[in-house]
Amino acid sequence: MRPVIDLNADVGEGFGRWTLGDDDALLDVVTSANVACGFHAGDPSIMRRVCARAVERGVRIGAQVGYRDLAGFGRREIDVGPVDLAADVLYQLGALHACATAAGGEVAYLRPHGALYNRVVWADAQAAAVVEAARAFDDSLPVLGLPDSALLRHAVRVGLPTVLEAFADRGYRADGTLVPRSEPGAVLTDEAEVTARVIRMVRERLVIADDGSDLWLSPRSICLHGDTPGAAELARRTRQALQDNGVRVEAFA
Amino acid sequence: MRPVIDLNADVGEGFGRWTLGDDDALLDVVTSANVACGFHAGDPSIMRRVCARAVERGVRIGAQVGYRDLAGFGRREIDVGPVDLAADVLYQLGALHACATAAGGEVAYLRPHGALYNRVVWADAQAAAVVEAARAFDDSLPVLGLPDSALLRHAVRVGLPTVLEAFADRGYRADGTLVPRSEPGAVLTDEAEVTARVIRMVRERLVIADDGSDLWLSPRSICLHGDTPGAAELARRTRQALQDNGVRVEAFA
Amino acid sequence: MRPVIDLNADVGEGFGRWTLGDDDALLDVVTSANVACGFHAGDPSIMRRVCARAVERGVRIGAQVGYRDLAGFGRREIDVGPVDLAADVLYQLGALHACATAAGGEVAYLRPHGALYNRVVWADAQAAAVVEAARAFDDSLPVLGLPDSALLRHAVRVGLPTVLEAFADRGYRADGTLVPRSEPGAVLTDEAEVTARVIRMVRERLVIADDGSDLWLSPRSICLHGDTPGAAELARRTRQALQDNGVRVEAFA
Amino acid sequence: MRPVIDLNADVGEGFGRWTLGDDDALLDVVTSANVACGFHAGDPSIMRRVCARAVERGVRIGAQVGYRDLAGFGRREIDVGPVDLAADVLYQLGALHACATAAGGEVAYLRPHGALYNRVVWADAQAAAVVEAARAFDDSLPVLGLPDSALLRHAVRVGLPTVLEAFADRGYRADGTLVPRSEPGAVLTDEAEVTARVIRMVRERLVIADDGSDLWLSPRSICLHGDTPGAAELARRTRQALQDNGVRVEAFA
Fold first, then answer.
1. What is the rounded distance in angstroms from the CA atom of residue B7 to the CA atom of residue B29?
2. Is the dihedral of CA C145, C178, A81, A76 positive or negative?
């Protein structure tokens, strides 16, 4: 039986006059598009356009929810209380839902962005708030996240489907956490290395950690980055390499 | 057969730390609540709370959509292009939809707010944009607005149900337009006069215009104002007067 | 020699259509007005109006700087980096400077608001950032804050004047920190108790802590709260009680 | 006597994570930098950085003030009332003043942006509001704008210096107004044509209008555009062509 993997990337991260990344090129590669919902990036016009293009290509639409922080692009942790956070997430889900259904699609999953992504790895109250919003929106909405995160634990607790992801170009520690961006080895840029790692993650469910040991992973989705120069091209080659190595690239939702 | 009328008012118009009007008192009186959707007023937490209370009381939830202008409370006309305006309205509809359905309700109608309300009385491009968004969201969504407005004409054109409203406390001209707020007679404050006018509007479908002539109206809903001191009490008495005069107060949607 | 004290309070904390507190009543009582600068509350029109009224009454204008978070009223801690935070604070100082000088006044001091106030009590990087901005704006700008805070330490380090404040209605612990708002005894509401405490703070430089011990304080300013019902009246009586007890009420700057 | 001209361009028009144009390249060419002040583009960190680089290069700093509309990049006309508009402009002037003076510079002039620029060509109330703010900020602040505009008329009325500008790459009508962007001939892209026009504008004070007639202009500054691909290079060549033709390139303020 052929192994199967989903490829996800962030899209729709411009705002008004400002653009970021090459959405069209990424949408030609990925099977799942994390669409920014307007709180940290994205605006209603961009959301409609990206949803329409995702639907045209058969790409699944996910809600890239974040803190209310356009000035910080959602990358600054905010001590928002759980009731407000849940409301903020629900609001974003609904806004994207309207854009997606107007384009003939739907919101197929949720994936937090930036500082919220990192915070709900460990912070129970915020993780529970995100999950409460997801469940209130759709009690069978898949949640895409980091293995062993508080987010996925809370999703399991309330019966939401969970989807594990791995990062194509990030260094791992032996305990499964990511090498922080402030340290060497956090981000891999060599194309051959990245594609080889991704193929091994998917076929053997192993990745080499920064101490040289092998780490077991079991991703159903691989996160590709889209906002660096050459990112779309690297994403395209990663997909090609997976297919050349007998991997079926297919959305999870 | 008893005449029937809906009573609508704006609610949920606070933002964060700031409150406006007495939502709970108004929700005890109206049959339809125009809930602000976060672009000119309202925030996700307020929207969830107001939706929950509306559902508890059996009050219908409408989308009070407006320009993206918190600083101006949506009261300043903005030359937003039709594509962006439609996307902004769709986004707001979706956001409210998520809050309403999470509370066990639904978005039952759309009513523009403030400067957008006034603009779509005459401006075809913006009226068409609002209607496009409403139809994209739900192709049977009722649109509540001013008789003879471009908004309702466009709604009719695409097959959306339209609902006519009249204003309890605003002066009318003989041609059916409102006396501008900058002129005397724009706003009526005498309780007996307001309730008498409302009863006559509903029972006889007539209101006296500012030139003394009788004007024919055919409202299915009466708009009550909620953000002035004593507004909720005036609303309560208006409802009581209607019921005392044999009028059935009932939502249109 | 008569003891002297400044009274400060937050003013100008509305936004657009929304108001908060009774600015005019507070400006009749305080000697220093902490004017919100538009990032967490306040807008340019409010700032001009409040500055004009402060100048009319001889009240000193201080910059109530905060996180960029209107939705959270600046009460949510944000992990903004020091370079961005310093720029945000400098921007707010300049904006208020223009409003104050246009009214014939000036920015006489800086006082952080809300979550930023609490954070710079202990967080060196953010405290240093606020101080860098203050110094870049005016290298003799007084900084008003909590005794023993990182904020005042950094201000001293770069040669800015520091001004110590005490709270009229907050409970203290024996170590000089405030009783957290989540605990009993955090906020005092009995008028007689509040005024007696304030008089003792100013005349004897002592306040009773929550364990019954006496705590030494040396405030040059007392912070009065303005956004609760009856706040302006309590402020007025506190000022009267101070004057009746031989204290001179006078701004520090 | 050698003719003299200033070259101005918009800079600092990014926001947070988003960038726009090549500020560094433009700052190497222009003598006056119109720095966005945070209401339609720009943020405090960008403003500080751009001001520092302008000061290093001896480029004069101007306040590029606009409507409060990040989502629309200040390109949508807003019916903001004159009191609020004046306050918004004063706030922006003060914010930039703090950034400029912290960098060792100053705000040397004001130039409205986008829809506000176009509106104050004809709208008296908004033009008077912008001028009121400029005067309140600094009663000798030069105002840069379109000849015959309401803006400059009001500036003259209150005694502010006015500076006339012409556009390097925009088509003109015989009456001196610009060909609207929606019409052919609105924007010129041929480098040789653009530089030849600019040299003629400066040396002969003439430009050919779209009906073939000669139009008299008297610019003290030429506006170069910076946000299109190749814009900085075209700006550089325009400056070079001016200097090669005996024109002194020098700021007006």
1. 8
2. positive
Interface residue B69 vs chain D (CB under 8 A): yes
Among the listed residues A158, A160, A125, the one whose alpha carbon sits nearest the alpha carbon of residue A145: A160
A186 in contact with chain B, both atoms CB, cutoff 8 A: no
Say whether residue C115 is in contact with chain B using an 8 A CB cutoff: no
Q: Helix, strand, coil: what percent of chain A each, to 5?
A: 40, 20, 40
Q: What are the distances in angstroms from CA D198 to CA D26, D34, D215? A: 17, 19, 13
Residues paired with residue B250 on neighbouring β-strands, in sequence order: none
In tens, the pLDDT along C86-106 reads 999 999 999 999 999 999 999
Query: Looking at beta carbons, which residues of chain B come within 8 Å of C70?
Result: 15-16, 70
B70 touches chain D (CB under 8 A): no
* Dihedral over Cα of A200, A204, A209, A214: its sign: negative
Per the CB < 8 Å rule, is B93 touching A91? no
Helix, strand or coil, per DSSP, at residue D65: strand
Binary contact (A68, C68; C-beta < 8 A): no
C15: confidence class by pLDDT, cuts 50, 70, 90: very high
Question: What is the distance between the alpha carbons of residues A37 and A66, in angstroms, rounded to a whole number?
Answer: 8
Binary contact (A99, B94; C-beta < 8 A): yes
Instruction: Chain C: give the shortest CA distance to residue D137, in Å.
Output: 6
CA atoms in the 13 A half-sphere facing the CB of A233: 7
Chain D: give the shortest CA distance to residue C87, in Å.
5
Distance CA B158, CA B156 (A): 6
Q: Name subunits touching A (3+ CB pairs < 8 A).
A: B, C, D
pLDDT tens string D27-71: 999 999 999 999 999 999 999 999 999 999 999 999 999 999 999
ipTM score assigned to the predicted complex: 0.97
The tokens of B64 are what?
A: 């009070």
Cβ atoms of residues C16 and C43 within 8 Å: yes
Q: pTM, whole model, 2 decimals?
A: 0.97
DSSP state, residue B107: E
A242 shares contact with chain B (CB less than 8 Å): no
**Coil, strand or helix: which one is A110?**
strand
D159 in contact with chain A, both atoms CB, cutoff 8 A: no
- How far does CA C120 lie from the centroid of its chain? 13
Strands (E), chain B: 4-11, 32-36, 60-65, 107-112, 143-145, 162-167, 206-208, 214-216, 221-224, 248-249
High-pLDDT (> 70) share of chain B, %: 100
Segment B82-89 shows an average pLDDT of 98
Interface test with A, best of D10, D15, D18 (most A CBs within 10 A): D18
* Cβ pair D45:C83 closer than 8 A: yes
Distances (CA, A) of C212 to B156, C107, C148, C207, D198: 73, 39, 21, 10, 80
B98 touches chain A (CB under 8 A): yes
Contact D65, D36 (CB under 8 A): no
- How many angstroms separate the CA atoms of C64 and C100, rounded? 13
Would you say A103 and A47 are in contact if contact means Cβ atoms under 8 Å apart? no
CB-based contact, A84 to chain B, within 8 Å:
yes
- Interface B–D counts its CB contacts (< 8 A) at 30
> Tokens 């705590």 — which residue?
C215
Does C90 reach chain A within 8 Å, measured CB to CB?
no
Which residue of chain C is at minimal alpha-carbon distance from B70?
C16
Contacts of B250 (CB under 8 A, 6+ apart): B4, B5, B6, B31
Single-letter residue type at D154: H
What residues of chain B lie within 8 A of the CB of C15, using their CB? Answer: 15, 18, 70-71
d(CA B164, CA A166): 55
